[in-house]
Amino acid sequence: MISDRHMNAESTRSEPTGSALGVLVEKIRLVLADDNHTVLTGLHQELGKEFDIVETVNDGQKAIEAVRRLDPDVLVLDISMPILDGIQVATQLRDASCRTKIVFLTIHEQPEYALAAFSAGAQGYVTKRHLADLIPAIHQVLSGRNFVSPSLQ
Predict the structure, then answer these.
(1) 79: closest CA among 28, 48, 36?
(2) What percentage of the chain exceeds 90 in pLDDT?
(3) Which residues have C-beta within 8 Å of that of residue 120, sequence separation ≥ 6?
(4) 52-69 burial by CB neighbour count: b if 16+ within 10 A, else e?
(5) DSSP labels for 85-145?
(6) What does residue 114 show for φ and ψ, rounded to 5 degrees?
(7) In percent, how much of the chain has pLDDT > 70?
């Protein structure tokens, strides 16, 4: 079972992993934020194979706190969440000049939601119907490019 704070601050940095060339490579560090426990569990299982999931949270305020405390590479963020919605979270993190990249993962497929997300500071927007886009989206935003699910392009 995944708790809101399944890892403590002392264990947030991943162990380096070896590459084929013998060079140590740190895993990309993610915070996952979604108010649906089933979604969080599934994301943790799938993304945990490739990324270091440093924390999962179920509301917007906890997402901001986790990003400030853990400084992850990417925040995977839902739009519809309690306390602060994802757009409010992204706006606050943008206004604080946070280095963490934001990739929205949401059921909202209307272009106006994607526009709001990018205006708030997101670099990626993936619809839950196109979940297979999430891993490529994470890599693309970390390389400095924006990503939008093809269904919205």
Answers:
(1) 36
(2) 80
(3) 87, 88, 90, 91, 94
(4) bbbbbbbbbebbbebbee
(5) -HHHHHHHHHHTT---EEEEEES---HHHHHHHHHTT-SEEEEGGGGGGHHHHHHHHHTT-
(6) -65, -45
(7) 84
- 10 in a structural domain: no
Chain centroid to CA 48? 12
- 78-105 tens-digit pLDDT: 999 999 999 999 999 999 999 999 999 9
Assigned domain for 59 exists: yes
List the domain range (segments joined by +) for residue 142: 25-152
User: Residues near 28 by Cβ (< 8 Å), separated by ≥ 6?
Assistant: 50, 51, 52, 73, 74, 138, 142
Token pair belonging to 49? 């194979």
